[in-house]
Amino acid sequence: MLENNLKKNIIYNKWILFILLISFGLSFFYSFYYQIKPQVDARAYDIIAQNIVNGNGYRENLDVHIKNDIAIVRAGPIYEFFLAGIYKIFGHSYPAVWILQAVLHAASAYLIYLICLLVFADLENKKKIALWGAAILGFYPDLIEISAMLMTETLYIFLICLFLYLFFLHMHNNKKITFIIFSVVFGLAVLTRPPVFFLIPVIFLYFFKKRQFIQILFFGIILIGVLAPWAIRNYYAYDKLMPFGAGGAYNFWIGNYSGGGGEQEPSPEAGSFFKNNSVVDSYEESTSQFKSFVLNYPGEFTKLTLLRVNKYFSILRPMGFWFYTSGWRQALFVLGSFIFSLAVFILSFGGILRSYKLNNIYIKYLLAFTIFTPLILFITVVETRYRFQIYPFLAIFAAHYISLFELDKKLWFKNLLVPSIVILLIGLVDGLLNFNSFKDKIFSHFD
Q1: Backbone conformation region of residue 57, classed left if phi is above 0, alpha if psi is from -120 to 50, else beta
Q2: Can you list the residues of the chain whose pLDDT is less than 50?
Q3: What is the pTM of this model?
């Protein structure tokens, strides 16, 4: 018996090593094959990082007063300082960024493996689940593509995975050092992309149910300590308390106006205001416009929210429609992204339905994190890459469902009927509502 377990462990160790090497290799190959030059947001992050290295601070445009510099609108600042650290050591080197992001991508897959071992610790097939979870995240086309760009998502997903692992490890061992580290990591994730901030109710719920009220206090203190330097810097630079920057406020207006579609497409009025006013004025106006829209047009706000929910889970929103490629290569990637997303969305839905029935406290908190993850996007803006932060959760639930296949193959397919119908219907509704948009995008890229 002991010998058989040892052999199994050796096999599992070989498989996880294989998965991690392939995950790294795919990201590495994709980066160096396309060598994507920074554009739009990526270009802004690149410029800000160079300005940090050159001693100019967190600035994007040095030709304007800081109160008119839109650097504060970008997601950050952790990713820009991550880039600045690379540039400081290796010079202004994109290959160095690509290699380190390939490492982060593989590391995220490994963290999913470790999370699954904790979450499904009481299941005999936990290592199979862990292997599938690592493979799903590591081989996800969308995440491989984004790791080849100077975008926040690769670092962001790594920090989310690290936070999840440390949170569940703390549930397991209840050590102070684990608590402190996961609190700091959570703060760093917030400073990379703020939407993760809205997982706090789940964290507080855990400590509240454990009657560990002092932990709630210390978590808040540590989080404030991590966020404070950025908030103080912004206050002195802009005379305005903006602990998460200004991008979040902009999104509330960009995604909510009469005639909008709930995506990151500013109205002519918003675009004109942003262009002709300071960052702080635009920040305040965005908040005011959002409140006014919700109060005066609650029906249209509700409609936009439902549209965003539909778009968030739509399988007709694959990655791949980028500037760096076209023709059959782009078509192949879009198809791969579509098929992978279709499979993961359906399997994860099946996994959620099945996992919920288990008497497992870890799964309940994992499910709570999953539910809270997209909520803020439902009332602001939805873009395909904005849903990346839910992919680690979906990978875990999909992996669990895949592991059930050998138990009852007939029942396995039968239980996927409802998830398949729901996901396909969501895609169908999105397709019917946005037919012209999809048609224009496809023909403009693949003509």
Answers
A1: left
A2: 2
A3: 0.93
